[in-house]
């Protein structure tokens, strides 16, 4: 009898185990099928922008871990009605997806950041329209505030997918309060005690100017938004190319930057970036049969998420350095703090030219414009009209340091604590579930 009961218990145990085993096997089979389907889909040359994850192998250590400033909590200004409407536009999907429904699998996204120089912008847009491969990628245009003519020019683009974003905290959107000019703010070299005004002067005794600080605020907001905020890019681990409204782009630029990005892990594994142009904006390149390694320039620079994480980890250094220029801030304090020489890989001939002469976003007044009717042409040799970089070229390293270096104190314009706090808030606004405003 006892033996019979044990047999029945044993059979019951088997009956309970068999469905569990079948469930496990079915689950494994489903996961295998999903894996195979994903691999098959991933082998296609094209992918849509919203399901891609590009990862580049690199000797640079790092990941997507975000380092936050201890005890700091982001606080953003209360938005104006215009700022809120622009923030809503930032959520819109790219245009021209009906004309360019897919992005190439190995595409490099392009970010063009602009202020209010429409005649300059016309030149840049016209040059981009002639770039080989431009239809394979996404062009993101980041506006510093809102200017109708600049908006109109970008709205006219039909040669690729294009997405516009507008910095909703640009000083230009706040005419009577911070980050614009607030009542009671100190001006120029005002003495706060004597004038009973508010603000922190920079190292030269000058108080903040919204027009000046917008340069650095826009660039930093844009970088944080592109890498960590936008649906189209926050999962993108590959390279992103950054250009400005006064950069003329050669027709071979996109193919060259694609090739350089592929060559970088092999030719210069310690390089942080790829550049379209020499760091010396007056140079068109050496013309050698060699790749060039030098400091990162500010014309047509390209890097990936690993490098962005290294830059983002230095948010405090970036936001506290007393210089209104983002690029000088990077050269003088952020790059030197990374622990090794920060260099970039480029070709021996430029693929982009800086043509801005006005500076500080001037040049939008038609009567005093730096360019007549948006017409500006550059003489390019035949070799510069197509990809002109050879994979088996050797690498020449410029070891001499030029330009701004560690120890430079900055040109000022960035002494107000409110600007520094807003800058830090931009760095962390996508990494907190709740961000205060007002």
Automatic annotation (TrEMBL):
Q: How does it sit in the membrane?
A: Single-pass type II membrane protein
Q: Where is the composition biased (Basic and acidic residues)?
A: 186-199
Task: List every stretch annotated Disordered.
Answer: 181-202
Record InterPro entries = GlcNAc_II (IPR007754), Nucleotide-diphossugar_trans (IPR029044)
| Iron-sulfur found in the keyword field | no
The membrane-spanning stretches of this chain are 20-37
**Alphabetized UniProt keyword annotations:** Disulfide bond, Glycoprotein, Glycosyltransferase, Golgi apparatus, Manganese, Membrane, Metal-binding, Signal-anchor, Transferase, Transmembrane, Transmembrane helix
Enzyme Commission number(s) = 2.4.1.143
Q: Where in the cell is it found?
A: Golgi apparatus membrane
Q: Name one GO molecular function term.
A: metal ion binding
Q: Does the keyword Membrane apply?
A: yes
The protein's matches in Pfam families, at most eight in alphabetical order, are given as:
MGAT2 (PF05060)
GO CC annotation: what is one?
Golgi stack
Enzyme class, spelled out: transferase
Q: In which pathway does it act?
A: Protein modification; protein glycosylation
Any GO BP annotation: oligosaccharide biosynthetic process
Annotated catalysed reactions: an N(4)-{beta-D-GlcNAc-(1->2)-alpha-D-Man-(1->3)-[alpha-D-Man-(1->6)]-beta-D-Man-(1->4)-beta-D-GlcNAc-(1->4)-beta-D-GlcNAc}-L-asparaginyl-[protein] + UDP-N-acetyl-alpha-D-glucosamine = N(4)-{beta-D-GlcNAc-(1->2)-alpha-D-Man-(1->3)-[beta-D-GlcNAc-(1->2)-alpha-D-Man-(1->6)]-beta-D-Man-(1->4)-beta-D-GlcNAc-(1->4)-beta-D-GlcNAc}-L-asparaginyl-[protein] + UDP + H(+)
Which cofactors are required for activity? Mn(2+)
The residues the record assigns to binding Mn(2+) are: 246, 354
Write down the SUPFAM superfamilies for this protein, in alphabetical order. Answer: Nucleotide-diphospho-sugar transferases
Q: List the disulfide bonds.
A: 186-197, 268-271, 319-423
For this protein, the record's PANTHER family field holds: ALPHA-1,6-MANNOSYL-GLYCOPROTEIN 2-BETA-N-ACETYLGLUCOSAMINYLTRANSFERASE, BETA-1,2-N-ACETYLGLUCOSAMINYLTRANSFERASE II
Give the record's family classification.
Belongs to the glycosyltransferase 16 (GT16) protein family.
Could you identify this protein by its name? Alpha-1,6-mannosyl-glycoprotein 2-beta-N-acetylglucosaminyltransferase
**Species, as recorded:** Iris pallida
């Amino acid at each position: 009898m006892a033996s019979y009961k044990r047999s029945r218990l044993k059979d019951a145990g088997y009956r309970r185990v068999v469905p569990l085993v079948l469930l496990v096997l079915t689950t494994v089979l489903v996961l295998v099928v999903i894996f195979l389907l994903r691999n098959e889909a991933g082998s296609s040359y094209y992918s849509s922008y919203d399901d891609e994850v590009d990862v580049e192998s690199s000797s640079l250590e790092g990941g997507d871990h975000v380092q936050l400033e201890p005890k700091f909590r982001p606080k953003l200004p209360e938005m104006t009605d215009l700022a809120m409407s622009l923030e809503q536009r930032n959520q819109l999907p790219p245009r021209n997806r009906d004309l360019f429904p897919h992005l190439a699998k190995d595409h490099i996204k392009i970010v063009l950041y602009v202020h209010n120089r429409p005649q300059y912008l016309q030149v840049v847009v016209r040059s981009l329209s002639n770039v080989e491969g431009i239809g394979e990628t996404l062009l993101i245009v980041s506006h510093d505030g809102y200017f109708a003519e600049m908006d109109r020019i970008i709205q006219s683009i039909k040669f690729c997918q294009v997405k516009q974003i507008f910095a909703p905290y640009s000083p230009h959107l706040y005419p009577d309060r911070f980050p614009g000019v607030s009542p009671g703010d100190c001006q120029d070299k005002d003495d706060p005690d004597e004038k009973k005004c508010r603000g922190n002067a920079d190292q030269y005794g000058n108080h903040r100017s919204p027009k000046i600080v917008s340069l650095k605020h826009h660039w930093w907001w844009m970088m944080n938004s592109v890498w960590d905020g936008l649906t189209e890019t926050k999962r993108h681990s590959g390279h992103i190319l950054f250009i400005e409204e006064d950069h003329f782009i050669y027709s071979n630029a996109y193919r060259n930057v694609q090739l350089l990005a592929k060559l970088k892990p092999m030719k210069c594994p310690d390089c942080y970036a790829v550049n379209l142009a020499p760091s010396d904006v007056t140079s068109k390149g050496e013309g050698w049969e060699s790749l060039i390694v030098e400091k990162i320039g500010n014309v047509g620079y390209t890097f990936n998420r690993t490098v962005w994480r290294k830059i983002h980890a230095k948010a405090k250094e970036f936001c506290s350095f007393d210089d209104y220029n983002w690029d000088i801030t990077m050269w003088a304090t952020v790059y030197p703090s990374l622990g090794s020489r920060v260099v970039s890989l480029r070709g021996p001939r430029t693929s982009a030219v800086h043509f801005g002469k006005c500076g500080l976003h001037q040049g939008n007044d038609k009567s005093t414009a730096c360019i007549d009717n948006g017409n500006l042409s550059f003489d390019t040799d035949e070799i510069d009209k197509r990809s002109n970089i050879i994979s088996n070229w050797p690498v020449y390293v410029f070891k001499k340091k030029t330009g701004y270096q560690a120890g430079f104190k900055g040109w000022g314009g960035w002494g107000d604590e409110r600007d520094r706090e807003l800058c830090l808030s931009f760095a962390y606004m996508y990494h907190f579930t709740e961000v205060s405003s007002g």
